[in-house]
Amino acid sequence: MKDRSEKAPLRKRAEKILFEKHEALEKVSSTDMKKLVHELQVHQIELEMQNDELRKAQQVIEESRSRYVDLYDFAPVGYFTLDGKGVILEANLTGAELLRFDRNLLLKTPFSLYVIPEDMELFFEYRRKILQIPGRQSCELRLKRRAGIPLWVRLEGAAVAAPKGKLTRMQMAASDITEGKRSEGALSASEKRLQDLTSKLLHIQEMERKSIANEIHDGLLSDLAAVNYSLEAKILTLEKASDPLASDLRKVLNIHRKTMKEARRIMDRLRPSILDDLGLIPAIHAFCREFQVFYTHIQLECGLEILEDEIPEAIKVVIFRVAQEAMTNAVRHGKGTSAKLSLAKGSDRIELVAQDSGRGFDLENTQKGVGLESMRERVEISGGTFKIESVIGAGTTIRASWPQALPHGEISAC
Same domain for 111 and 65? Predict the structure, then answer.
């Protein structure tokens, strides 16, 4: 009863409004009524046309949505949407296939569950960058598949605002780079084997040079010294007898001494004994003195600002060979009148610099000679860095440097 009493006033108002409308309609003429009916019919047709347009638009939207879903689910890369804590909110079918998990099982689970333990710290750092640094971030790490086989992926991701703007989300694209990593690993292993082989060949070459130098010293020079002693004794005897043959033998002796000097020079070029006996610093000083004697037209400045015991044994022969080859190139190709050779100790590296004031060359368009490539190879194999600076008409500078503490087990490229 109470409900009826409450609705009564509302009903009375409605009846009053309807009555007033009926009174108004009774006052409308037939002509106006026809116009009103016409207006209503036109409006009805407009509504039907609009409804048809809406249905077509809805169909286009549905088709577009279907295409989007297909593009999203069957994209060539996996797509993942994570919340701020790294929980998977969305994943496409490709992403689920990468991990070999059903998509429904992936949702609402932490993405870190599928990162192998060794790369976990890398992933957390990557996630931190996405949330704190604007723009797209990338990293490469390994994920765990359901079958337990590691999968190398490249992650490309960025932070986006959640629908209500309260939380931060991460959108990531995961590309399978396993095959590329395998090829990269095989190439790296091949390069390592080649580097080891080259290092061994250089070592064998150096040992062969040392062996030949020793043979020259112990064999050829020993025999030449004996001949020299015999000639001097014979010449002295002939000179006492005023024999004119003494003058001719003196000329032979001079030629013989030049031959001995040349043999010693060849021996030192092969492997200077001073390098093994006294060390690198004395060997370089001796080389610079010999260089100045043979090439008097070139003014050589030799600056060694390092102590012998500050140089790792593994690179002493390398440094000497690079210095030797650099100065030889300065003579053969530089054609300058001055040169500088320096070896110094920096804050954490040992640097060898060889400069000449020669004609220089175009680094981009000139084919590098065997000497330059040999120097680069020796330096890089021994754990150093090698750089050439040259300008046409302004000389050439060669820079080689090594860390003061070579990595453990570094192979000497002697």
Answer: no
